[in-house]
Amino acid sequence: MSYKAMCLALLLASAAVALASQDPELQQCKHQCHADDKQVRQCEDRCEEYHRHDNDRSPIQKLRECNKDCERRHQEQQQERQREDCQRRCQERYEKETQSYEGRGRHGRDSHQQKQTNNPYVFEDRHFFTGMQTQHGRLRILQQFTERSDLLRGIENYRIAVLEAQPQTFIVPSHLDAEILVFVARGRGAVNMVREERREGFNIKEGDIFRIHAGTTAYLVNRDNNERLVLVKLIQPVNTPGQFQEFYGAGGQNPESYFKAFSDEILEAAFNVDGERVKRLFGQQRQGAIIKASSEQIRSMSQHQEGGIWPFGGESKGTHNIYDKRPIYNNNYGQYYEVDSSQFRQLRDLDIAISFSNISQGAMTAPFYNSKANKIAVVVEGEGYFEMACPHLSQSRSQSQSQRQSRRGEEEEEEEEEYSYRPRGETTTSYKTVRSRLRTGTVVVVPAGHPFVAVASNNQNLQIVSFKVNADNNEQFTLAGKRNVMNQLEREAKELAFGVPAREVEEVFRSQEEEFFFEGPGRRADA
Ligand SMILES: *[C@@H]1O[C@H](CO)[C@@H](O)[C@H](O)[C@H]1NC(C)=O
What we know:
The structure is a single chain. The protein is an alpha+beta fold. The protein has a domain at 324-402 and 417-422 and 430-526: Jelly Rolls (Sandwich). The protein is 27% helix and 29% strand. The chain contains 14 helices and 27 strands. The strands form six sheets. The chain has a seven-stranded antiparallel sheet, with no helix packed on it. A hairpin with a 2-residue loop joins strand 2 (128-134) and strand 3. Helix 5 runs antiparallel to helix 6. The two termini are 21 Å apart. 36% of the residues are buried. The chain binds 2-acetamido-2-deoxy-beta-D-glucopyranose (NAG). Residues 323, 335, 358, 360, 461 line the site of 2-acetamido-2-deoxy-beta-D-glucopyranose (NAG). 2-acetamido-2-deoxy-beta-D-glucopyranose binds next to loops.
């Protein structure tokens, strides 16, 4: 029995215990040594060695083995339930490990925080602050991209915000000094936009995209009785790059009305009424910007056509549902939808496209990159992780060589502690793996040209909405699967570039027969 095979056998034997307690594999392994008294010492040494090796194996390798073991142990048809339970435990263990794995570094497990600051592409809950909040909902705003890193200067003038409103609520009228593009991530609502002599409203539902032009006063209702309304907003300020403000006219103390900034004599003269009545009007509202409404009020404010007609200009629709068009990619492993300015005129002057990926549980996207668009991706549902190749965060050459020699699993690349900016004049580009968990609410920036892949957990679909900034004439290039860039190289180019016979290159790049969505690494039976 080879050493590796023994390791694996011992691991499998102890997998059940492994889930329950600390380092049980090691204990189990040593325990089994006593059955073979003669060479106890030697055996124990091998256990120790194996244990060290096990620590070097990547979480994903362990996940695969664990999943395979579940299949082996619960092969029968009627054991499907147990098999699923078993695989769920594998997944949980994997997730726990990847969390601590990411946090592992020179300073031990506590370096998680530090790591995050060194990976400027991923934003979690704590990178949002609360723009406004009442008991009926809140607006969360993501920190400015450039606060995080200069590498994100290209999207400096974009902000992300997420609005959540409880069922049967009213979001009071306001305008922003910014263009707003909204994706309805969840729920059903109605939006109204007003100008001097006109008001246009339309109902909105999951998957809808709509735009609120800068300065347009808009208000919303959540017209559902049970479900929250969740809107993901891309905000493009028009005054100060990267900064915007909300302006409430109709209001009082809270939200404070901008009318209150004017002096009494100005307001009296402007409205042509006496000062007391002005004071009373702007002194009443104290409930905040998201408030409860009665069902009659909601019903009366929701009497719009689905989609509606675009208010100010007439010829195009007010909303576009991203699921309406056939997906660009669609197979058992996922669907990919995209809307650009050719399908939705509202996007025309914004240079933005919106895409939506629905990655099936246990599946992954192809590695791909965008030719010129910077992608701001927001997870709207599910869990998983991503990997991205990043030349900006690579290590210096000598460091990366020594690390490459020492490493056994590619995951060690994610010791993000060691990120450093590549010194100028460095001739050999080396790439850092940027990797992080994805869960509902995570925001990831994928710069143009950077190869990226997303993987869904085994339990749930992973759904991601992406705003692509700088989208006009952007192309998305896939790097594996039925159609991929490498397949287009001439035979000679393949041989020269890879330094192996073209046939060998083709064998690798032609083996994956699916397009864009594949079976994920944790699910591959023959991995
Ligand atoms: C997402 O995928 C699931 C199946 O995995 C499917 O039932 C659902 O309709 C899909 N949603 C969209 C919006 O494509």
